[in-house]
Amino acid sequence: MHPGLKEVIARGRVLARGAESIVVLHEWFGLDAVYKIRLPREYRHPDLDSRLRRNRTRREARTLVRLADAGLPVPTLYEADVEECLVVTEYVPGPSLRDALEEGEAGPEHVEELGRIAASLHGMGIVHNDLTTSNVIVADDGPVLIDLGMSFDSGDPKDHAIDLRVFERCLESSHPSLSDELWRAFLRGYEEEAGEKRTETVLRELERIKSQVRYV
Ligand SMILES: Nc1ncnc2c1ncn2[C@@H]1O[C@H](COP(=O)(O)OP(=O)(O)OP(=O)(O)O)[C@@H](O)[C@H]1O
Ligand SMILES: [Mg+2]
């Protein structure tokens, strides 16, 4: 690892240490910034590990730029270094949607907005692929989407249904008492953006995924 990065980790504030990465709050040319560094995983073959980490770094940076270009709410990308598996972005203050829902600081209106954002993403042919309430920050002016390293390009409603499936399951497991109301809010926003026809198609694919999981 580059010595400068070691220093960032040593001097910054660690916000999260996930399965894949360490996320550190530290300044970047005087701006509050988030350094996401994908660290080697010992249990993976070194070549495969390096390829995966680089690919996810590339995906994260590329999708952040595309979404920002389209005017969607994501942190501004400051810097990316594929060799170091590093992505530096704007620091977005605010709780995760998960915590905000638990504390009653966010409600259906935030989830409805997230539904609109997800439909816009799909309209651009992008799948988030890890759409959970932990991967959304509730900022002052609304939800901001993060954690785009698993995202991929697809215009196929079957793939769009993956995001809906992951999100629905997240509501059921993390927010069980609110899950029906929040799911309806999400679909309301989704349909508002995607239209009735596209929403129906994706929901059909969602039902198909669910029945496969049940019977296979
Ligand atoms: N731009 C940001 N501004 C503020 N906080 C952030 C930002 N990016 C990440 N965080 C915080 O760090 C946590 C982890 O970030 P992220 O979800 O991107 O990584 P991860 O879940 O470890 O990712 P991966 O699944 O790719 O390993 C987030 O849940 C959030 O609390
Ligand atoms: Mg995450």
How would you describe this structure to a colleague?
- 51% of the residues lie in helices and 20% in strands.
- The protein is an alpha+beta fold.
- It has 2 domains: 3-90, Phosphorylase Kinase, domain 1 (2-Layer Sandwich), CATH 3.30.200; 97-215, Transferase(Phosphotransferase) domain 1 (Transferase(Phosphotransferase), domain 1, Orthogonal Bundle).
- Helix 4 (108-123) crosses helix 6 and helix 5 (157-174) packs across helix 6.
- It is globular, with a radius of gyration of 18 Å.
- Magnesium ion (MG) is lined by residues 134-135, 147.
Secondary structure layout:
Blueprint: H1 3-11, E1 13-17, E2 21-28, E3 31-38, H2 46-69, E4 77-81, E5 86-90, H3 97-102, H4 108-123, E6 126-127, E7 136-139, E8 142-145, E9 152-153, H5 157-174, H6 179-215
Antiparallel strand pairs: 1-2, 2-3, 3-5, 4-5, 6-9, 7-8
Helix pairs in contact: 4-6, 5-6
The structure holds adenosine-5'-triphosphate and magnesium ion.
Residues 134-135, 147 line the site of magnesium ion.
